[in-house]
Amino acid sequence: MNLRLTDVTLTYPDGDARLTALDRVCLDVPGGSLAAVTGPSGSGKSSLLAVAGTLITPDSGTVTVAGTDVTALTRAERAVLRRRHIGIVFQQPGLLPSLTAAEQLQVMARIDGRPARSARGRAMELLASVGLAGSAGRRPHQLSGGQRQRVGIARALMNDPAVLLVDEPTSALDRERGAAVVDLLTRLTRERGTATVLVTHDRAHLPAADRVVEVHDGRLRPAADHEAPLPRPARPAPASPDR
Ligand SMILES: Nc1ncnc2c1ncn2[C@@H]1O[C@H](COP(=O)(O)OP(=O)(O)OP(=O)(O)O)[C@@H](O)[C@H]1O
User: Fold this and answer.
1) What residue spans of 53-174 are helical by DSSP H?
2) Fewer Cβ neighbours under 10 Å: the N or C end of the chain?
3) Which residues surround ligand 1 with Cβ inside 6 Å?
């Protein structure tokens, strides 16, 4: 299962003209790997996530999620695909104040029309996988910022998505808690085989990624200091065989 953006161009209306937010972007994220997307403010990172998450349809190019070209789908079909195959983790998890951690997850299953009993089991399993087995009955105000973000991550995994899109998950956390959240995302990506895209400003998180790309003025390019091939050790020329 993977996520593939091919030649994606996205423009927004800008007075009488159009502003190019994404310019022929290509990105391939295999299942089980994490791509970090970085770049200056206004460069197009959120636009890239919105297109990958099928929230915005690009002007041209294709977006393939779990083998389906989403740009060929109707709006209703896109909504179904998004619910089934895409998990989104926002900067602020936006938890409902009156619900416990387990209920925040169970709501997702209810929206999808799944039986409550299996949803409870799945919610508990996911909370355990993000280290919150003992906090299932807590409400948001009884959780730390890092714990709330973990609930947001577990919630995004409720539908067992092929693609996990994560927008600046550590911006409200201190360095240590932020690093723990990124470690968690890396582990879940491997365990669950998701194609994960992590947008982050924080360069400290980049080494955790399998791949780092930078967005500049809507164009994607490999991050110079993370994708450059490692220098090969100088090897002596093979000895010429004795004759
Ligand atoms: N709805 C919109 N209408 C018009 N222009 C937009 C819209 N959304 C974004 N833009 C413009 O598109 C460009 C890319 O914006 P985008 O939000 O994708 O950047 P970003 O890299 O996520 O920025 P930040 O790091 O500040 O969140 C910017 O020039 C922005 O002003």
Assistant:
1) 75-85, 101-111, 116-129, 145-156
2) C
3) 12, 19, 21, 39, 41-47
